[in-house]
Amino acid sequence: MKILAIDPGGTTGFALYSVGVVTADQLGPDDHHWRLERRLDNLRPSVLIYERFEHRNAPFAKLISNEYIGVIKCWAQKNPEVKLVAQGSSQAKHWATDDKLAALGLLLKPLTKNRNANDATRHFVYFVCHNRRAPRELREKYMDILRELVTGEVR
């Protein structure tokens, strides 16, 4: 199962889970509509998670994010076998903190340079820990690691 999480925007972050490994990277900040579509064609995820638009006070971010979400939705319509999942920014970004990503071995540094890749990874981790479509063994593994982080208790 390939799971791809995307944080769309002027710089679009990606987190891909495939064959037990999570990799993350970014496209942009230049125009990347076509490259986003090509990336989706090449990766062919079975689950595609994206950060849905939420009202923000940055007009440019609103416009450009919606453009890239349109590319994602169009690609998903052309590939109906793909499970499309929209997640809110605040739920994933507030729950999957830097400490949690670091405990899972998924936090990319330097933080500023990799902000969008890390935000996509937050969406992936939130999905794995909160969605029944995620592989059960992966959810259990992540939740055990995060439980140890919070409580100090090893299971």
Description:
The model has no long low-confidence stretch (mean pLDDT 92). Helices cover 49% and strands 19% of the residues. A five-stranded mixed beta sheet has the order 3-2-1-4-5. α1 (33-43) runs parallel beside α2 (59-78) and α3 (89-95) crosses α5 (115-130). The protein has a single domain (3-151), classed as Nucleotidyltransferase, domain 5 (2-Layer Sandwich). The chain starts with a strand and ends with a helix. With 155 residues, the protein is of the alpha/beta class. It has helices spanning 33-43, 59-78, 89-95, 98-103, 115-130, 136-151; strands spanning 3-7, 12-18, 21-27, 47-51, 83-87.
SSE order and pairing:
Elements: E1 3-7, E2 12-18, E3 21-27, H1 33-43, E4 47-51, H2 59-78, E5 83-87, H3 89-95, H4 98-103, H5 115-130, H6 136-151
Parallel strand pairs: 1-4, 4-5
Antiparallel strand pairs: 1-2, 2-3
Helix pairs in contact: 1-2, 3-5, 5-6
Structural key phrases:
globular; alpha/beta; 155 residues; 49% helix; 6 helices; 19% strand; 5 strands; Nucleotidyltransferase, domain 5; five-stranded mixed β-sheet
Question: What is the mean predicted local confidence, pLDDT?
Answer: 92
Please list the strands of the largest sheet in the order they lie side by side: 3-2-1-4-5
The CATH topology turns out to be: Nucleotidyltransferase, domain 5
- Report the strand count: 5
- Helix fraction bin: 40-55%
Roughly how many Å is the radius of gyration?
15 Å
Task: Tell me the strand percentage band.
Answer: 15-25%
Uncertain runs are none
Number of domains: 1
- Bulk shape: globular
N-to-C CA distance:
26 Å
> Can you identify the CATH class?
Alpha Beta
The helix tally amounts to 6
CATH architecture: 2-Layer Sandwich
What sequence of helices (H) and strands (E) makes up the elements?
Answer: EEEHEHEHHHH
CATH superfamily name? Ribonuclease H-like superfamily/Ribonuclease H
- Biggest sheet layout: 5 strands, mixed
Structural class: alpha/beta
